[in-house]
Every structure is written in structure tokens, then in C-alpha cells.
Amino acid sequence: MPRQPSRRTVLLGLAGLAALGAGALPGCTSTAxxxxxxxxxxxxxxxxxxxxxxxEPPSPQPLPSTTVTAATGVVAVPGSPTxxxxxxxxxxxxxxxxxxxxxxxxxxxxxHGLPDYWPASWLAxxxxxxxxxxxxxxxxxxxxxxxxxxxQTRDGAxxxxxxxxxxxxxTQTTGYPWKTNFQLHAQAxxxxxxxxxxxxxxxxxxxxxxxxxxxxxxxxxxxxxxRFVEGSPNVRLYGRQSxxxxxxxxxxxxxxxxxxxxxxxxxxxxxxxxxxxxxxxxYSIYGDPAKAGATAxxxxxxxxxxxAVKTHRAFSVDDQLWFEGIGYTGANLILAxxxxxxxx
Length: 344
Known about the structure:
The protein is built from 14 helices and 15 strands. By secondary structure, it is an alpha/beta fold.
């Protein structure tokens, strides 16, 4: 039976890919407040980052420019920027996966910090620049970024304000088109070579995981993905056009009928929780469990009657990874967890 990769193993492997060509590419990590990370024989260790006089961030240095075609049109961006701000979790995953520690990042409103599937030491130097969908433009400007990454879904309305601070590259949406969005992020960051290596490694990981799941006799299982969201009266069941949905499709895993649809999600009231059943049920909670309705549903008879619950095939998963880890690092970590859940 193949050995299941740990989170540390996956992260170290991706860090090695991010370093591909680092000798030829300037600035493999941020040169500002965030700690740079360098590969060593024992893994990744933080490297002090220089700051300007009086502990102020250094003024951005002019870089050769290039152009990318973003959701807003053609954007001139500096070549291989290192001073980057990420306005959503997909942009954060892309940047770190490609070897850039952002100067700043926005966090989800109900979270207490940035996604915790990243080691705390990797996130320690990243300034919080407000919440996703409501970033602090003054804070962003104070960091002196060379590039801002975001998406129109969250920040289309403030594109002009952001682009006055620094070149701003927005994807049209987030989530489902994450592989396409990653390529745009890589172009804006000047990291196409590293991106190609990351994509290739993901393909190999998918093949290995699918084979391990098949060898365990779990290839035909129907996987239910459920999320309780603070402030919503309904329960979200995730369809095929979602980040997690694409990972299950890559592994050729089945879905329960209510979730086997070409849409992002299906919201059901708690009294229709029977639609959440599956051979394997994975659920998470975003925000306060009581305010998300999870406390009541999980204790209710409807949930306890689900076959997945009765057969002990319902598991809680990390919300910040499974629903905010929109990118290749998040994807690889989820593949490893799916292999564990399915007995590979």
C-alpha cells in the first residue's frame, strides 16, 4: 500500500518546485516584511528579510514591465515582482506556491487569521490588509506593493482605487476556474516555469492518489461535500463547479445525485439534510457553529439518520483548507486527505 504523504511532505515538495529556476529568476520570495523561506536539508527555515530605514518598507524599485490580459483587460505589470498583496485565498495560495511571500493579504471575515494549512512561520510576516471583499486600501498603499492580485467577484468595484496603488490583476471569478486563474497569477508574477512544474507534479499526484483509492476498493464511492456557513439558514451541498468538485472530478470519484450537478452549490434547509447523504460525507463549519446552524443540525435526528453517519463515514474537515485553500498547494493537501479517508 502506498505511503500517504503528510502535510509537511506535500508542502516541502511544493516549496522545492517553487524554487525551480530561482537562480535565474530574481527574488524567489518577498523582500519586505514577510519572512522569506529557503530550502535546507532539514526543510524550510525562515530567512530574515531586509527593511528600509527606520523599519519602513523599502520603496519599490522599478522593474522591467510586461503585460497580462486580466478580467479588466490588458494590464502592464512589473517583471517578476516580489512585493505582492493578495486579496483572496486563491491569490494567496498561488503566490506562496510559486515562491512569493506576500507583503499583505486579506482574510476571510469569520476567520481569526489566514488559512492555517500554511505553517504559522510562513504566514508570520504577512500583514493583514482587511477582510476579503473589504480590503483596507490605505494599509495596502502603505506596504508599497509592486503588484496586487485579486478577483472581480470580490474587488471589481474598487479596481480603480487599487490600480492607483499598484498594477492590479483581477481574475473574473474565484473557485471553480482555479487552474486557469493560477496561470494568470503565474504570468503576473513572472513565474511560468515554476507554474509548469507545479501543474505537472499535481497531475502525477492525481494519478497516484486515484490508483491508491482504486487499489483500496473505493473508486466507486460517492463523495458528499457539506458546509455550514455562519449567517446562512441553509446547508450548502457543493456541486461539480466548485474547487472541491474539480478535485473529486480529477480523481474520477462519484457524487450523490443532489450534488452531481454543473453548479457551484445547492442550498437546502436543515429539514432536507437527507440530501447530504453519501458513501463518504465530509463537512466543515465556517464561523461560529451555532450561528452556522451546525450545532442544531449535527445533534438532530435527520443528521443521525444519514447512512454515512450511521456507518461512521462522516468526517469533519478543515474549512480553511477545503473551502479556502483554492490553489495547487491546497489541492495537493486535500488529495492526501482524500486518500486517507478512502483507505488508500
